[in-house]
Amino acid sequence: MIITNKKQMIKIATDLAQQASHNQIFALFGNLGMGKSFFASSFINALQQHKSTVLSPTFSLLQTYQTNKGEIFHFDLYRLKHADELENIGFFQAINNNIMLIEWPQIALAFLPKNITTIIIDKPQNSSPQTRTIDIINPS
């Protein structure tokens, strides 16, 4: 689908958050600056009683948030060089019972269950600065 502003992205993230189940994993793909962190922030805030500042965990690699659907684990794996590093950040412990949002999930794909929801955010060529395509691929 094509969106042309942040309000539309917030709506998509909010709708997905409301439908999310207790142990669902969302893998966020897209180049730098496409809106993965904005999407994750909108998703997390949709489930909090009081909206908070949700920052990309680019340097900390992980941020957790208490929500009305339980704890959400927000990972940013951009800086990881080896899959072995996943163990050090609590990645495998989070998989089993929590909602997970994973930015830059490529290094972890071999370890994720097959039933993840994939979200691909891209910018169409020759489009306005805020226009994005969002493809949501749910497990079959």
Describe the model.
The structure is a single chain. By secondary structure, the protein is an alpha/beta fold. The chain has one domain: P-loop containing nucleotide triphosphate hydrolases (Rossmann fold), CATH 3.40.50.300. It has four helices and seven strands, in the order E-H-E-H-E-E-H-H-E-E-E. It has a seven-stranded mixed beta sheet with strand order 1-7-6-2-5-4-3. A hairpin with a 2-residue loop joins strand 3 (62-67) and strand 4. Helix 1 (6-19) packs across helix 2 (36-46). 29% of the residues are buried.
Keywords:
single chain; alpha/beta; Rossmann fold; 7-stranded mixed sheet; 4 helices; 24% helix; 26% strand
Quick overview of this protein structure:
By secondary structure, this protein is an alpha/beta fold.
Write the layout of secondary structure elements.
Layout: E1 2-3, H1 6-19, E2 25-29, H2 36-46, E3 62-67, E4 70-76, H3 85-88, H4 91-95, E5 99-103, E6 117-122, E7 132-137
Parallel strand pairs: 2-5, 2-6, 4-5
Antiparallel strand pairs: 1-7, 3-4, 6-7
- The proportion of residues forming helix, as a percent range, comes to 10-25%
Strand content: 25-35%
Report Rg: 14 Å
CATH fold descriptor: Rossmann fold
Outline type: globular
Residue stretches low in confidence (pLDDT < 50, at least 5 long) are none
| Gap between N and C termini | 19 Å
* pLDDT averaged over residues: 90
- CATH class reads Alpha Beta
Under the CATH scheme, which architecture would be assigned?
Answer: 3-Layer(aba) Sandwich
Give the tally of β-strands.
7
Element-level helix/strand string = EHEHEEHHEEE
